[in-house]
Amino acid sequence: ETVLRLTGIEKGYKLGRPNEVRVLRGADLTLAAGEVVALVAPSGAGKSTLLHIAGLLDTPDAGRVEIGGQDLSAASDRARTAARRGMVGFVYQFHHLLPEFTAAENIVLPQLANGAGPAEAEARAVALLSAVGLAARTDHRPAALSGGEQQRVAFCRALANAPRLLLADEPTGNLDPATSDTVFGTLMGLVRETGLSALIATHNLDLAARMDRVVRLEAGRLVPG
Ligand code: ADP
Ligand code: ADP
To answer: Per its UniProt record, what Pfam families does this chain match (predicted)?
Structure first.
């Protein structure tokens, strides 16, 4: 079963006519259910652009985006937002947790926005935090957590609405090497347990080697790494 299929994705940015940078030039990618793929490329190659298109945050100039077998290329903004909320989780280099809310509340809020009841949302938040070893941190605000703990809470938030697809942009890039190593292990554990498909951009080739396969973004196309 295919969770993500990108076909012939083209994307450029206008820098004032007639100049345009073509970032993606016919990128193709297929992610099977449960597959974890590393996305490797130099800075500026277009990794964030690709992740935003795959996650329905941005639209390509040409090409097709399918998630969970649904072709969302020409869907309305409303349909794309609904598909994103139901099927995609995002993780970034920085945690982007809401500072005035506790760890558990940061995981409850996206569930409430998605129509879950408060008791159900709270139970899921606690279960997710326990799964990443943060059962004792549910009522802590982000500022009271270490960098690695903050990032683990961000993983739980990404999984709050039980997505099919996780998109991560340098998820441990902000952490020191030893912490990055453990926290990446936590992320992989969560992904494997939930059977999620994941596309994880990283500069760290050791982390890339721990995934199922590597794709490289080269001259706007994806090639086996
Ligand atoms: P990466 O994530 O691999 O560093 P990005 O996808 O962020 O790469 O950017 C790819 C290229 O597109 C870069 O040259 C960047 O400067 C350019 N770019 C990205 N976003 C925009 C934008 N909104 N407007 C103009 N150029 C952009
Ligand atoms: P909300 O339910 O808060 O309105 P959205 O449905 O807009 O959230 O977004 C779903 C996911 O996409 C969230 O995890 C959010 O972090 C991410 N997201 C939304 N907009 C952007 C953006 N412009 N850039 C990066 N990530 C975004």
So the answer is: ABC_tran
Ligand 2: centre distance to CA 89 (Å): 9
Cβ atoms within 10 A of the Cβ of 87, count?
20
Pairing between β-strand 88-91 and β-strand 36-40 as defined by DSSP bridges? unpaired
Tell me, using a 6 A CB cutoff, whether residue 92 lines ligand 2.
no
Residues in CB range of 34: below 8 A, 6 or more apart: 195, 196, 197
Pocket perturbation via mutation, ligand 1, pick of 9, 17, 21 by most ligand atoms within 8 A of CB:
21
Per-residue pLDDT of 123-161, as tens digits, reads 999 999 999 999 999 999 999 999 999 999 999 999 999
Torsion, Cα 130 169 111 129, to 10 degrees, reads 10
- Closest ligand, as measured to the CA of 115: 2
